[in-house]
Write a structure and sequence with these properties.
By secondary structure, the chain is of the alpha/beta class. It has seven helices and seven strands. It has helices at residues 13-24, 37-51, 65-79, 102-129, 152-171, 196-205, 214-225, and strands at 4-7, 28-33, 55-59, 84-87, 133-138, 176-183, 236-239. Strand 1, helix 1 (13-24) and strand 2 form a beta-alpha-beta unit. Helix 1 crosses helix 7 (214-225). The termini are far apart. The structure holds nicotinamide-adenine-dinucleotide.
Length: 244
């Protein structure tokens, strides 16, 4: 019986690359999107044709408890189980420190941190019943060492994901391994508006002298879901090309 992965925010960027890597390994994939229905459906069609796997496309806001419950229920109804959850959905609101509002803070924490908690809470019920599962949370190097006051709330939300990862690995022990991946800069739609000179400055700080491609993050996520990663639990893996 094929394994099942649920990837939140998987219509583009790292989430889409992750869905593709898991499909290559024969996983059935639950594709979650918030707004971009066309891209989610196109990805589903591509995965079915190219890798002969089954897909389920679900619209859900990860910060909305009812929608998360509905998404998990639909996944269980269709596939009977969830083997792997990748909490990838995230937002970054770029603004100067002076312009940042309480609403910015609340939305960022709601989606990035509370969203990660909510999907983990509901997906873990099935994993615990099956006494097996993997949860991989997408944090950021901004959650480890931060020097960007323009993303003060994002950085706090990503630090909280690391903390949450450890607590969830305790809560779900010994059945579910919960780990986090902390990417550095990645070439995704999230970064497409960055000014050219800022990209050059940041690239100079990276030992590899380039941003990552989404597939390079997705492959680490896939590894954490594999049998070879059975004893990796409650930790965070930086994937940043080396950064000063
Ligand atoms: P992206 O903007 O391309 O993709 C984010 C996805 O999350 C989108 O599909 C979006 O629709 C979805 N999403 C946003 N809010 C949602 C919600 N409330 N409910 C459901 N889905 C929602 O960004 P990306 O770069 O692919 O980012 C993926 C993850 O990686 C994010 O958690 C991000 O913080 C993290 N990350 C990205 C970078 C980077 O440099 N791109 C670096 C470190 C960490």
């Amino acid at each position: 019986m094929s394994k099942v992965v649920l990837v939140t925010g998987s219509s583009k960027g790292i989430g889409k690359a992750t869905a593709i890597e898991f499909a290559k390994k024969g996983y059935n994939v639950v594709i979650n999107y918030l707004t971009d229905e066309n891209s989610a459906n196109e990805l589903a069609e591509y995965l079915q044709k190219e890798y002969k796997i089954e897909t389920l496309v679900v619209k859900a806001d990860v910060s909305n408890e009812k929608q998360v419950q509905n998404m998990v229920n639909q996944a269980i109804e269709k596939f009977g189980k969830i083997d792997v959850l990748v909490n990838n959905a995230g937002i970054a609101i770029d603004k100067e420190f002076e312009d940042r509002t309480v609403e910015d803070w609340k939305r960022t924490l709601e989606v990035n941190t509370i969203g990660t908690f909510l999907v983990s809470k509901y997906a873990s019920e099935n994993m615990l019943k099956n006494k097996s599962g993997r949860i991989i949370n997408i944090s950021s190097t901004n959650g480890i060492n931060t020097f960007y006051p323009t993303s003060i709330d994002y950085d706090a939300s990503k630090a909280a994901i690391i903390n949450l990862t450890n607590n969830l690995s305790i809560q779900f022990a010994p059945y579910i391994n919960v780990n986090a991946v902390a990417p550095g800069w990645v070439n995704t739609p999230m970064n497409q508006e960055l000014p050219k000179d800022f990209i050059e400055e940041e690239t100079a700080r990276i030992h590899k002298k380039r941003f990552a491609e989404p597939e390079e993050i997705a492959k680490v996520i896939l590894f954490l879901a594999s049998d070879d990663a059975e004893y990796i639990n409650g930790t965070v893996i930086k994937v940043d090309g080396g950064m000063m």
